[in-house]
Amino acid sequence: MDVIQNYVSLLHTLLPSTLTNPLIQIVTTLYGLSKTLQTHISPLITQVITQPDIASILALVAILWFSLQIFGMLYRSVMFWVRLVWQLVKYSLIIGISLWIWNRGMDGAIQDAQELAGFWAGSSRGFRGGEGVEGAEEAQIRMQAKQRAAGVWVALEAER
Fold it and tell me: In the structure, what pLDDT confidence band is assigned to residue 122 with cuts at 50, 70 and 90?
């Protein structure tokens, strides 16, 4: 700061007086502030250095504060990506449903939705262990009977 004060006197020759007066006031204010802080903070720093208990507590508090700041930044960055993916999925779903309704028409989309709901309802019965399992077994028996009948029909056709 002493070096700056040595060159402040040369500002009158380089700059106009409308700029030098505020600049000189700012420089002298900062110099006085730095000298005041230096006189008041240097005893505090020497006290912290001479008493290691206070220094370790202050270091622990500083480390805790910095780590919480870092965790806050990490949380914000993760939440940004989660929100971004959520928004992309949401708008993609809206666009996909809109295109599906546009292509199929309202009646076709309602019919497709009803068929899908019926399929899900039938599948959920199978998971509950109720009628769905028996219905599935019954459907499997019917399918095998149809296959046998078709096999017999094919055999009869082959004999002719």
Answer: confident
- Distance, in Å, from the CA atom of 124 to the CA atom of 132, rounded to the nearest integer, reads 8
At residue 152, does pLDDT exceed 60?
no
What pTM value is reported for the model?
Answer: 0.42
Contact of 31 with 7, CB cutoff 8 Å: no
With tokens 């370790």, the residue in question is: 56
**Residue 35: domain span:** 1-50
- Is 28 inside any structural domain? yes
Number of structural domains in the chain: 1
- Tell me, yes or no, whether 143 lies in a domain: no
